Amino acid sequence: MVDEPIDYLEFGVWQGASIKEWASLNAHAASRFFGFDTFEGLPEDWDALHPKGTFSTHGHMPETDDTRVNFVAGLFQNTLRQFLEHTQPTQRLIVNVDCDLYSASLFVLGTLDRFFRPGTVIVFDDFYSMGEEFKAFFDYNRSFGREWDALGRMPHCVKAAIEIRS
Fold first, then answer.
1. DSSP bridge pairs for 152
2. 38-47 burial, b if ≥16 CB within 10 A, otherwise e?
3. Per-residue pLDDT tens digits for 66-102
């Protein structure tokens, strides 16, 4: 994947560490990296340790010198469909789901489903959260019936990655 162009979409950017790391790992000039976030923090409580507003950068997007990296500010539900009207994934798609919240995670997966092809990789940042990202993937998969393979996970499924088979 290092030498092939990718379209990387990240949902939940915060300070930009993940998107910058992916961009550094894939130096292909045709690769495109898009980070979606409100940059105002969580729009609602995630759990007792992460109330509404957690992960706010007070509207400031991460800085980067990499011209392949772009940010889209706003709720995913308000920005993703419009983004896809003008910028459609055309290369191998990598999706980083760091939405934290069930509704946002399910929206992202359902909206992007028409772009998922064999070889699409979906990385979940908080897969262990049974009521949020895991539940969203479970409900998405039950509704859309995708076949997929597990690529890897961290202990206790804190993070997990899958590849779409069909």
1. 161
2. bbbbbeeebe
3. 999 999 999 999 999 999 999 999 999 999 999 999 9
Instruction: Write out pLDDT tens, residues 153-165.
Output: 998 788 999 999 9
Q: What is the pLDDT of residues 13-31, one digit of tens each?
A: 999 999 999 999 999 999 9
Domains assigned to the chain: 6-164 (3.40.50.150)
- Which pair of structure tokens corresponds to residue 4? 């092939």
Cα separation values, 148 from 66, 110, 139, Å: 32, 15, 14
For residues 23 and 63, is the Cβ–Cβ distance under 8 A? Answer: no
Contact partners, residue 44, CB within 8 Å, separation at least 6: 52, 101
Exposure string for 66-90, b = 16+ CB within 10 A, e = fewer: eebbbbbbeebeeebeebeeeeebe
At residue 111, what are phi and psi to the nearest 5 degrees?
Answer: -70, -35
